[in-house]
From TrEMBL:
Gene Ontology MF terms: iron-sulfur cluster binding; metal ion binding
InterPro entries listed in its UniProt record: 4Fe4S_Fe-S-bd (IPR017896), 4Fe4S_Fe_S_CS (IPR017900), Co_F420_Hydgase/DH_bsu_N (IPR007516), FrhB_FdhB_C (IPR007525), Polyferredoxin-like_ET (IPR052977)
Source taxonomy: Bacteria, Pseudomonadati, Bacteroidota, Bacteroidia, Bacteroidales
Listed name of the protein: F420H2:quinone oxidoreductase
Keywords: Iron, Iron-sulfur, Metal-binding
Domain 4Fe-4S ferredoxin-type residue range list: 9-38
Pfam families named among the record's database cross-references: FrhB_FdhB_C, FrhB_FdhB_N
Length: 384
């Protein structure tokens, strides 16, 4: 895999070793779409353990799914942050290890050898839970070339994959800004210039819910050595005011293929289970909305139904039409932002990624007109 000028990873064929077997095309999820079919069950779900739900992006469903697999001596695959706060695929075999895999991470992940390791565990007869984007789950199924009764797959309503390079440069700039602010307060730098900038970050949460599920915050927690005393400080902003999150959410930062993705449509999911936020739950059942997070679960296969029915969660069934009505991520591709080209044409040479992210959100006149039209259409659809 090699990054392009925008910072997205793409496969590169080594023509000196390629034997033209066509396997890469055979397992490509883009050219092997699943048959269209509706999910067997649609559920609103809540984890009754509020401590887990607090640390989760939505209703806290991933954790009990993963715990069941691990309690069966199985393996859970998902994404975690590496030492440089990039997102990588990995696996855990312990309950303690699940912490790193909990919570959304809005960055393109590197697969590494996850598919090969997954196949190895499956052939050993161990239970495996594989969680990923719809295209990653689809690619796994195609890579395996056969069904495994000991494999459970779960995808989610995907908005798209942002650039790893944008993410990295954004973090570096936030750290530098924080160091500058600290120098103003302390009067001198308390951080060695030779120290890896990313090592100053103690934790990152894309969806911290201290202000509620709907007003989640983007949080960077810094670990700052100061003499013999370590003190932490936090950069926290509500999601729609954070420049990185805002640019991601509006579609500026996504990989080009995400705008025309046909795999993310819930009816074409290769996964046994699809997870999402149940936006709109307050409109259909306010008893399921305490603003701590409610998950929408689509059970797409008999295996998914059987597995999920053995999980203890608060839940209620809904029609698929209700799920689609309030969750456009299940039915529509990501919006190609008119300022995307502006952003990425200036990105390589910009001195401030944060300033460029903010500038990308300044709407043109045509964007403002389109926004008003779309708002009217959405309101009409909700009334139908």
């Amino acid at each position: 895999m090699k990054a392009d000028v925008e910072g997205f990873l793409y496969p590169v064929v080594d023509k000196t070793t390629c034997i033209d077997c066509g396997l890469c095309e055979i397992v490509c999820p883009i050219t092997n779409l699943a048959e269209s079919s509706k999910p067997l069950q649609v559920l609103a779900t809540i984890n009754t353990d509020n401590s887990i739900r607090k640390e989760s992006s939505s209703g806290g469903v991933f954790t009990p799914l993963a715990e069941k697999i691990i309690n069966e001596k199985g393996v859970v695959f998902g994404v975690r942050f590496d030492e440089n706060w990039q997102v990588v695929f990995d696996y855990t075999e312990t309950l303690e290890g699940l912490t790193a895999y909990r919570g959304s991470k809005y960055v393109q992940a590197t697969i590494n050898n996850a598919y090969q390791k997954c196949e190895q565990f499956l052939k050993e007869g161990r239970w495996v839970l594989f969680t990923g984007t719809p295209c990653q789950v689809s690619a796994l199924k195609l890579y395996l070339k056969k069904e495994y009764s000991n494999l459970i797959t779960a995808d989610f309503a995907c908005h798209g994959a942002p650039s790893r390079e944008v993410w990295s440069r954004y973090l570096e700039e936030e750290i530098e800004n924080h160091k500058t602010a600290q120098r103003v307060v302390v009067g001198k730098s308390t951080v060695s210039s030779s120290l890896n900038l990313m090592s100053l970050i103690e934790d990152i949460k894309f969806r911290e819910k201290s202000d509620g599920w709907k007003k989640f915050r983007f949080v960077l927690k810094f670990d700052e050595p100061s003499g013999d005393v370590e003190k932490s400080s936090v950069l926290s902003s509500i999601h729609y005011l954070n420049p990185y999150f805002q640019a991601f959410n509006t579609g500026v930062l996504l990989r080009p293929s995400c705008y025309v993705c046909k795999i993310k449509n819930a009816c074409r999911s290769h996964a046994d289970i699809t997870m999402a936020d149940f936006w709109g739950i307050s409109e259909v059942d306010s008893t399921f909305d305490d603003d701590k997070g409610t998950s929408l679960i689509l059970l797409n296969t008999e295996k998914g139904v059987s597995f999920f029915n053995n999980i203890t969660l608060r839940q209620r069934s809904f029609s698929y039409d209700i799920a689609l009505k309030y969750n456009e991520g299940l039915r529509e591709g990501s919006y190609y932002h008119p300022r995307r080209d502006f952003f990425f044409s200036n990105f390589p040479n910009t001195k401030s990624v944060i300033a460029l992210l903010k500038e990308s959100q300044i709407p043109t006149l045509s964007m403002q007109i389109s926004r008003y039209k779309n708002a009217i259409v959405r309101r009409i659809k909700k009334l139908l």
